[in-house]
Amino acid sequence: MLRWDLYVQEEAQSGSWNMAVDEYLFRSLEDVPRTVLRFYQWIRATASLGYSQKVRDVADLDFCRSHGIDVVRRMTGGKLVLHFNEVTYSLCSSDTDIFSSTLGESYRRISEALVRGLERMGLSPTLADAPPQEYSRGNLPCFSYPARNEVEVQGKKIIGSAQKRIGARFIQHGSIPLKDETDLLESVSFLKEQGGQVRSISLSQALGRPVFFDWAVDHLVSGIKDYFSIIPSRITLSEKDLRAIRAIEKERYSNPVWTAGRP
User: Fold this and answer.
1) Which of 69, 121, 142, 220 is catalytic?
2) Domain enclosing residue 214, as ranges
3) DSSP-assigned states of every residue in 183-205
4) Domains in the chain: how many in total?
5) 142 in catalytic set
C-alpha cells in the first residue's frame, strides 16, 4: 500500500496562514510521486476569493470590515467561499499514477473518496452534474450551485472544491460546512442583489445533530484511506517549514495588494 503524508492541523488559524500552508505544501512537491492530505480550521469567519475574481464584484468589503470578517485570495480558481465552522481539506500530489494528469479526472476521484467518508458518517451523497451556464459565468458564491462532480446530499451541495495544476503537480482544497452559515454568506456576498440563493447543506443539518471537527476528519480519513488503498502517515511541520510558510504568507496572503488586486 502507498503511504501518504497526513497533516491534521488541530488549532484553528487565520485565513492568510491557512492559504500559505497549502501553497507551501504544493511547492514542496518534487518529481518523485508524493501526496499530502491536510485538514484544517479557521480562527474567524473568512471569505476566500478565487484566484481571478475581482474582489469588489463578489464581496461586500464594508460589511466584512465592520463585522471582523477576513478576506483572502486563494491560489486556486472558483467562486467566493465563506469559511468558518467547517472542515477544510487540501490534497496536493505529484503522483500521476493515482490521479492521472487531467484536472477533471483527479477532481472526480477526490470527490468519490470524500463520498466514502460521508457514507461512513451515515449519509447518502452523490456527485453533481454540470451547473447552469449563468452560474459558471457569473459572480454568485461557491455554494449557490454544485459544480460538476462536486458532492451533494439531499440535492444540496455539501462540499465545495477548487483545484490548481502545474504540469504533473496539483493541489485541490475544499470546504465542508459543519454548521449552517447561510445568513452570513448572504451578507458577505452580493447574493440577494444578484437574485441568487444558497443551495447548500451542512454536516450538522444533514445528520440532524451537532458535528465536530475531529469526528468528521476521522471519518473522512477513513473513507479516503479505503478508496485509494493508502496508509496515512501523520506529519508535523519543522521550524524550517514554518519560516518558509511565514514568508509566503507575508508575500501573498496577508498582503493587501495580493488580496485586493487581480494578480
Assistant:
1) 142
2) 2-260
3) HHHHHHS-TTTTT----B--HHH
4) 1
5) yes
